[in-house]
Amino acid sequence: MADPEAPQVVENEVKQENEEEVDGTIETPGHQAGQLNEIMKNPMFLAAVQGKLGSMVGQPSGYIDSLPKEVKRRIKALKKLQFEMTKIEAKFFEEVHELECRYAAKYRPLMDRRKDIVLGGTEPTDSDCEWPSDSEEDDEDKDQDELAKDVKKKVAITESGDAAEVEKENSENEEPKEPVSGIPEFWLTIFKNVDMLCDMIQDHDEPILKHLQDVRVKFSEHELMGFTIEFYFSANEYFNNAVLTKHYTMNSEPDEDDPLSFDGPEIVKCTGCTIDWKKDKNVTVKTIKKKQKHKGRGVTRMVTKTIQNDSFFNFFNPPVAPEPEEDEDEETETILAADYEIGHFLRERIVPRAVLYFTGEALDDDDEYEEEAADEADEGEEDEENDPDYNPQTDGNKPQECKQQ
Predict the structure, then answer these.
(1) What is the predicted pLDDT for the residue at 401?
(2) What is the DSSP string of 287-307?
(3) How do beta strands 20-22 and 25-27 pair?
């Protein structure tokens, strides 16, 4: 006859096996999980883990070191081939710059024409204006509405029989409209439409930027890959300069210490210009008054101090880029990185496609491109998850191998 207490004994034995006695206390797996959750909630512990993981990013996985000697030898041969391809790539970019310089002369008459239309120096002909527009239908509806109003007025005049009096009353009520010359505030509107430029513009900058007549890019033929952005201003009450300039120096040669890291030309330096501000019109500085107390006598006095003020025109006074052997502080590095991005965007996008940034069409294109890129990235992740042959363990080794250079 079976012992009715046997199942209880087995159950107790299993329970004892799943228990651990530490310092006289019994800890079950559930208790241990609770302790682990408490540890994971500790911000100091999480910070330490994140710091450790951060230091491991980009570190070799050990895979390359584990390869046979003959395989490593072949990898060296591939790197030497890569270096030869890098030299060809650098030469390619040099010739592209030479081509840009030649084609700049072809663009110049069109840029001059654009400037004349914007400033009202010339009126485009009917053939110049033959271009499809999304707003044409709205313009036609507006014209039809105005025509209908005119017809109603004429009917009212005919019925009243006093045409001269009605026409005189209408002419007295109508305010004379000043003719609009060119396209007012063309470049200011463009700058305010582009986020990275709009963030730079302060309220006190706008009256000055209304005098901005044109922006050009001038490619340096003698200095390899360099270019200058020229800002043309009409006579104004703020400064005497007719043109403000920002020059960018580029490097298209692979780094001698790390030639395989070459990824095309990059801006390495920028130089602004001196703005000849008129008296009390410099918006890049402001004057503040501070109380200063004498340590010995305890006398307090007011001290006037001039400090830098936020302004778009600080763009023409960038920090000096350190020499390669010098250390670059984080603030200077951040300012120069943003400056280089703005210079590149002005050269590649805004100046060549100014009218599209004025209308906002180029902004829509930029947004669509960013959305498509994000969608493609999401689709790539979904494809991996839905792939029946996808092996997470196999994929887990790929990022480590791809880090090897």
Answers:
(1) 40
(2) EEEEEEE-TTT--EEEEEEEE
(3) antiparallel
